[in-house]
UniProtKB/TrEMBL annotation:
Coiled coil: 517-544
Chief place of localization: membrane
Domain of life the protein comes from: Bacteria
Family from the record: Belongs to the peptidase M50B family.
Domain Peptidase M50, chain residue ranges per copy: 190-271
Subcellular localization(s) per the UniProt record: Endomembrane system
Protein name: Peptidase, M50 family protein
Record has Acyltransferase as a keyword: no
GO molecular function list: metalloendopeptidase activity
Organism: Magnetospirillum gryphiswaldense (strain DSM 6361 / JCM 21280 / NBRC 15271 / MSR-1)
Ranges that cross the membrane: 148-167, 179-198, 210-228, 248-269, 278-297, 348-373, 379-398, 419-435
Recorded topology in the membrane: Multi-pass membrane protein
GO cellular component: cytoplasm; endomembrane system; membrane
Names of the cofactor(s): Zn(2+)
Length: 701
């Protein structure tokens, strides 16, 4: 049957038509409202004229449009409108074929419980109340929040609050760091719920202000965290772009107002729980409004504001379609027309926006996948991780590749396809060839032996016999000290020893004193032992070099006459010998190195040059506690750690590698990187090994 002679389907009686905003070319638009499904459809001038004369056959409608308007509408264009209304379920089911078609659409949209949970556990909605009457009664009570004087007062509070925060920035930043804890995260969660209540009420009240109905309000679960949501879809019937923008931005404006007043209150409130709560509210609201809600990359307020501001409904699908078309043309030069007619500048902007959304979503979904994996048990976490990566990352790529396969005839007709093929081949070569031989690991370097110098007891400095940086030999006197207490005890002991010796000689000549001979001999032996101990203690007050090396880091107060404690380090002797670097190698690279491999230490300090050397030893067990805090991430290092009491526990597998370096040891400890020339590894090999390491570690294989 001729398409022009086919009867058009009847439209549903409950549909309503509302004037819409002008399109980009200035032509009028209209919005079809479906109250049953709470959905809205934007149509152009030609479709409106066709629907205004709907009935009969496509040929009759097209002829009526051509006769009564300036639009030259063809029969095929009328059939396109019929396909649109039928596909979006805007027609009545008057025949068995219509019933079958609706049944097929319902079956296609229906998912099993498992399938629904699999794709909606990160975000789903639960309608709770019908707030339209409540919002209508609340609106007169809070209308002053939208007045001009309140807006100016909020701007003043914002300016003053930012000035006061800038003057207390150290306190503000310190408080922010202090809230990055478990209790702080709970506080931010509470602030999220409170701010979202205000956010959604602002949307609903602004919609009521412009005469729109707000059918539902309920809970939306975002990554299993409950937040409020409000249905303001009826704002699509507003013809005024300004009104739609005000409704769309009401939530963000409300959040920013909360942030402005909370920031000002924080600057004036005294220390305490109230000030801490106000800080959490301000800090979180600034982040949620400026970073999350204003982002056009996800379907948040920023996305809908961008659509209204640019008059580009369905911005994401249209941008994605334009980007896919551009990609196919750039790769294969198919010569196909763009999905929709746009000027060159807008086309490039849509393509750039689509690629930005794809990159943003790739990073977001990878992060969500990792988050899901770690927050669920291993089996469920691994399954959900695979679902996230497969559904949101690999499936869109696979669908695009299938489209290329369908167009392979057109692709092979030209020669442009050779360029991406050559590029893909080069990329595979780069990924397969094991050209990566450099292995980098955080490291530190110190002398092979360092001996600190201490006093045996409190003493007074008598002489300094060595200078900083002077080379000393084993046993060489370095510092001499005097301890008056020890000298006095030595003098007393010597006097008592002389007295007892004389008494012993006298007893030996006295025939009646022989019974005292044994006691005097024992006492004399004790005094001699005591004197020897005091002499040895006095000798220890002369500090000597324990081994050959350099005398470094002398105590600043080390001068004759100064009293010093045994707890004070007098200096240190760095032994003669080659310097040793200690590197911490990631588990993925452990099998790529062996003892004797060439290595080089590159210090972070620009005052010291790099040093070459060789791998001396490799630990086969990962370090449990990081012995060098300077390499920890908590102190600006490259090794991620977590604090366990006073210990720093590395996050992941890190293995200690000892490197013997050439040349003299540095005067001070150095922090840097060790670059080891190990076995070559390809990018694909590294990725596969990393995956296997994770599997072995997480599953205990």
């Amino acid at each position: 049957m001729d398409a022009a002679a086919m009867l058009l389907p009847s439209l549903r009686d409950e549909l309503s038509l509302h004037p819409g905003p002008a399109s980009l070319d200035g032509s009028p638009t209209w919005t079809i409202r479906d109250p049953v499904r709470n959905r809205y459809f934007r149509i152009g001038w030609a479709a409106f004229e066709a629907l205004s004369r709907w009935g009969g056959t496509a040929g009759e409608v097209a002829e009526a449009v051509r006769a009564e308007t300036t639009i030259d509408m063809s029969d095929e264009e009328v059939m396109d409108v019929a396909k649109f209304v039928r596909g979006n379920q805007l027609t009545q089911a008057n025949s068995h074929a219509d019933t079958l078609r609706l049944s097929e659409q319902a079956a296609a949209e229906k998912h099993s419980l498992f399938n629904w949970l699999l794709h909606h556990y990160l975000f789903f909605r639960i309608p709770l109340v019908r707030p339209d009457r409540f919002l209508g009664g609340l609106l007169p009570l809070v209308s002053w929040l939208g007045s001009v004087w309140f807006r100016w007062a909020t701007l003043g509070a914002l300016a003053l609050g930012l000035i006061l925060v800038a003057r207390q920035w150290d306190v503000f930043s310190t408080t922010l760091v202090d809230t990055l804890s478990v209790s702080g995260m709970v506080s931010y969660g509470i602030a999220l719920s409170l701010v979202k209540v205000i956010h959604e009420l602002a949307h609903g009240l602004s919609a009521k202000r412009f005469g729109c109905r707000v059918p539902t309000m309920g809970l939306a679960f975002l990554v299993m965290w409950p937040v409020l949501y409000t249905d303001v879809n009826e704002t699509w019937t507003l013809a005024s772009r300004r009104q739609r923008l005000l409704v769309g931005s009401a939530g963000i404006l409300a959040e920013l107002s909360v942030a402005a007043w909370a920031t000002l209150l924080w600057a004036f409130l005294p220390e305490g729980a109230l000030r801490q709560g106000v800080f959490v509210l301000a800090a979180f609201t600034w982040v949620s409004s400026l970073v999350i809600n204003l982002s056009p990359f996800m379907r948040f307020d920023g996305y809908f504001l961008a659509m209204d501001a640019l008059e580009l409904p369905n911005l994401h699908p249209r941008a994605f379609a334009m980007a896919r078309w551009w990609l196919r043309e750039a790769l294969f030069d198919l010569g196909k027309p763009a999905p929709e007619a746009m000027d060159k500048w807008r086309t490039h902007a849509m393509v750039a926006f689509a690629f930005a959304v794809w990159i943003y979503r790739l990073a977001l979904f990878l992060g969500i996948a990792v988050l899901v994996y770690h927050f669920f048990i291993k089996a469920v976490g691994a399954l959900l991780f695979a679902v996230e990566i497969g559904w949101f990352v690999f499936l869109p790529i696979w669908n695009e590749v299938k489209q290329w396969a369908k167009r392979r005839g057109d692709i092979l007709k030209g020669t442009r396809w050779r360029r991406p093929l050559i590029g893909l081949g080069l990329a595979l070569l780069v990924a397969i060839i094991p050209w990566r031989t450099r292995i980098e690991a955080p490291a530190s370097i110190a002398a092979e032996i360092v001996a600190p110098l201490f006093l045996p007891a409190p003493a007074r400095s008598e002489a300094v016999l060595v200078e900083r940086g002077q080379h000393v030999t084993t046993g060489m006197p370095l510092l001499t000290f005097i301890a008056p207490d020890i000298d006095a005890r030595r003098a007393i002991t010597s006097a008592r020893l002389a007295g007892k010796a004389a008494e012993l000689e006298a007893v030996k000549l006295d025939p009646f004193g022989r019974e005292r001979l044994s006691a005097l001999t024992e006492e004399l032996s004790r005094l001699r032992s005591e004197k020897a101990a005091l002499d040895a203690e006095a000798e220890r007050l002369t500090v000597t070099a324990p081994h050959a090396g350099l005398f470094l880091d002398p105590l600043p107060d080390l001068k004759p006459g100064a009293w010093l404690s045994p707890k004070q380090q007098l200096g240190l002797i760095r032994a003669d010998g080659v310097p040793i670097a200690t590197a911490y190698l990631a588990e993925d690279d452990l099998e790529r190195i062996k003892e004797g491999d060439e290595a080089r230490f590159i210090p972070h300090s620009l005052d010291h040059a790099g040093m070459a050397g060789k791998v001396l030893s490799i630990d086969r067990n990962p370090v449990k506690v990081l012995a060098d805090p300077a390499l920890a991430s908590l102190h600006g290092g490259d090794i991620p750690v977590r604090a366990a009491g006073q210990a720093l526990v590395p996050q992941g597998g890190f293995f200690r590698v000892t490197i013997r370096l050439d040349g003299p040891a540095p005067d001070i400890k150095l922090i840097g990187h060790a670059i080891i020339s190990g076995q070559g590894q390809s990018l694909i090999g590294r990725a596969a090994r990393s995956a296997l390491v994770v599997l072995v570690r997480e599953w205990g294989a």
